[in-house]
Design goal:
Elements lengths: L5 E5 L3 H13 L4 E5 L8 E3 L12 E5 L4 H13 L7 E2 L4 E2 L4 E2 L4 E2 L4 E2 L4 E2 L4 E2 L4 E2 L4 E2 L4 E2 L5
Parallel strand pairs: 1-2, 1-4, 2-3, 5-8, 6-9, 7-10, 8-11, 9-12, 10-13, 11-14
Length: about 150
């Protein structure tokens, strides 16, 4: 069932479109919008630095930047403003029940995260990647497509 909340994704590039697709498939949000500094369109509400004017109790936000340092910068700004940054997990990913996922983690299609792993905030576990038992991914790590 669709949630009444909306999400605003910061950035509207390829990674952002992938996350929006996952959220749409999961029916996680009633509305998915974007902020982007270079693109325009009906689903793009404005520039990234305008995020604060969209802050309310029914809006989550997600910094969808593949660059780890840029993602970290925006993640910290959103946290300072007490904006919820959800984990985004594709239904085809396998995540062991013993895994610890922190805030704002993205786990993309066909990824595997096995027994007793810890995935810290802001990480990307990309399509088809495998993280085996007892691994720790530190904050804002990006595990690339198909990595093992």
């Amino acid at each position: 069932m669709t949630n009444v909340k909306r999400i605003i994704i910061l950035g509207a590039g390829g990674y952002a479109k992938t996350l929006a697709d996952i959220l749409q498939q999961n029916k996680t949000y009633a509305e998915i919008k974007f902020l982007d500094d270079t693109k325009t369109g009906t689903n793009i509400l404005g520039k990234c630095n305008e995020f604060i004017k969209f802050k309310n109790e029914n809006t989550d936000m997600y910094p969808a930047f593949g660059n780890n340092e840029v993602r970290k910068k925006w993640f910290k700004l959103l946290q300072q403003e007490k904006i919820n940054i959800p984990a985004i997990i594709h239904n085809s990913a396998y995540i062991s029940p013993t895994v610890q996922l922190e805030k704002g983690v993205a786990v993309l299609p066909k990824a595997v995260i096995n027994t007793d792993c810890v995935v810290k905030q802001g990480c990307i576990v990309n399509c088809g990647s495998v993280i085996d038992h007892d691994c720790v991914l530190e904050e804002f790590v990006h595990v690339c497509i198909g990595a093992m």
